[in-house]
Amino acid sequence: MQIAYNTSTLYLEDMPLDIGYASEKVSLKNHKDETFTIGGQNGFTQLIFSTPFINDVLLAQLEEIDTLLGLNALQGITKALVVANVQHTDPQMEGWLFGIDTDEEFGDFYGMRIAQGELVRELAKGLFIVSKDGALFYNEILNDLNESFSLEKALPKIAAAMNCYTGKGCH
């Protein structure tokens, strides 16, 4: 996949995980070097944002998603911000997990690692919505790293992901 960044063209090492596939449970480290997992089936809807850099625009979008979730009474969601390495600083947002992909599991399983250029080995800018049963319900991989996520598209997908799995099987 081709991604633009300023005047550069970057490529991902692999194809990103596609909608409908089972998400992988991956281990990440937080800023205190404690391990936690995201992805896979855990009984909660999960929002996973990956990014090659944390800036004011991204932080404003994460705050906006919190506001939208609250206004729409969408609770019980695991929210995570994932970066590639310890060079990134935890923005310490309430209710958000901050994960460092130290073992490169997220980059491998979700196909988000940048292959070359000035951001080599960083993660591309993406949003993954994982339903309660662990399936990838929605993704948005930005073709331009300077763009913002389309939260107006994501919000209905979050609501749908929360309601699609009842835990009672298919009958």
Tell me what the structure shows.
The protein has 171 residues and is an alpha/beta fold. The protein has one domain: Glutaredoxin (3-Layer(aba) Sandwich). The protein has three helices and nine strands. It starts with a strand and ends in an 8-residue tail after the last helix.
Structure summarized in a few sentences:
The protein has helices at residues 56-71, 105-109, 151-163; strands at residues 2-5, 8-11, 26-29, 35-38, 45-50, 77-83, 96-100, 126-130, 136-141. The chain has 171 residues and is α/β, with parallel strands linked by helices.
Helical residue percent band: 10-25%
How large a portion of the residues is in β-strands, by DSSP E? 25-35%
- Main sheet strand line-up: 7-6-5-8-9
Number of structural units classed as domains: 1
CATH class: Alpha Beta
CATH topology assignment: Glutaredoxin
The coarse overall form would be globular
Please provide the count of β strands. Answer: 9
Helix-strand category: alpha/beta
Query: What string gives the helices and strands in order?
Result: EEEEEHEEHEEH
Largest sheet: 5 strands, mixed
Q: Give me the CATH superfamily.
A: Glutaredoxin
Q: Catalogue the unreliable spans.
A: none
